[in-house]
Amino acid sequence: MASSSRRASHDNYYSVTIFNADKHRRNSIDDTVSDSRRLSTDTNSPSYHAQARVIAHGPPVAFFGSCVIDDVFYIHGGVRTRADHAPSNRMFKFQNNTWTEITTPDSPSLSYHRCLAMNNGQYIVTIGGWDGSKRKADVYIFDVANAVWHYAHAPGFPSDGGLNNHAVIPFKSHNEGILVIGRDGSLRMQRKHGDAYCLRGDPAKRAFRWEQYPIGVASRSGHTLIGHGSSMYIMGGRADHLIQRYTGLPVENQSICNHLYSDLKEMIKSNVLIPMKKLPSTRKDHTSIPCGSDLAIVYGGETFDGRLREPSNELFVVSLDTHEHWYNLGRIEFGRQGHSMVNANDQLIVHGGLGRAGVCDETFAIDLIR
């Protein structure tokens, strides 16, 4: 897999395009350049083109793992209060606008982890996360049919690091494994290129292995990943990069919103939606989801511009082509951070996260205003 020599020459295999939301470059997501920060929305786009519609109330939870299998929305772990450092082990599924708890005694306690469905939905695999005392690179497997958790043997991750608030996406060829983009923490943060890994394995055999992946990715937290053709987009997670595109990385999106696509394309074609003159503020702990063949929807999060004192309720569309354009759909009723946004039953559904008053329990659908 990735050796140090391949890492040094990764530019021969991949190319990356970086779009900065600020004029100043910064070396860390914790650095601040207050005089270069800009408004989080384009003031030339005041119209509202979307609305939130509450369809259920479920568990109040934030910074949890989630995935969709056959239009069933699964969530696991997370925190239950704003200041909670002890992760939950609870698991729920959302079906027919009803939440059902499916927690079992062997369920791991995690927050800030990521979940993926594997083997055609037979298994849910959790990757990394916070166990209440440290970042971990552990892999757990939930057998969906038998409702049983298993701990997977997964060697190869550096002993001085762990994962939380990272992002994951499978490669198109499942034999190539899962791409994991930091945050890996601890001493690994001091390396220039230490935040990209490939996780290979078989959940049926409960065996995985970590390997470094030969691309250079700066440390980031609370970002999202979207695949488009042979490109991968990293959105947010740093104060200086809103969107970053890697070519030559054929990854696969697990949840795609298709039902809004034709309407959004028509709104763009008819100039109901006009490209933003300025990029939105960089943000973290947001959600993004591909829409159709060449669009993505980005919602919520905590912005780095210092102007929003509570989770964002902003909704954007970005075109994933040679020249990325951002479109402002306006604001919806709910601001969220550390939530989940998925496509299930032909609906764009959001659950949980931090809101103005704390951890939220609403499950709502996002609709376009036509």
Topology (elements, then pairings):
Elements: H1 4-8, E1 15-19, E2 50-57, E3 65-69, E4 72-76, E5 91-95, E6 98-101, E7 114-118, E8 123-130, E9 135-143, E10 148-152, E11 167-170, E12 178-181, E13 196-202, E14 207-212, E15 224-228, E16 231-235, E17 243-247, H2 261-269, E18 283-284, E19 287-291, E20 295-299, E21 302-303, E22 314-319, E23 326-331, E24 340-344, E25 347-351, E26 354-355, E27 358-359, E28 362-368
Antiparallel strand pairs: 1-17, 2-28, 3-4, 4-5, 5-6, 7-8, 8-9, 9-10, 11-12, 12-13, 13-14, 15-16, 16-17, 18-21, 19-20, 20-22, 22-23, 24-25, 25-28, 26-27
Structural notes for this entry:
There is one protein chain. A four-stranded antiparallel sheet has the order 1-17-16-15, with no helix packed on it. The protein has two helices and 28 strands. It is mainly beta and 370 residues long. It starts with a helix and ends with a strand. It has one domain: Kelch-type beta propeller (Neuraminidase), CATH 2.120.10.80.
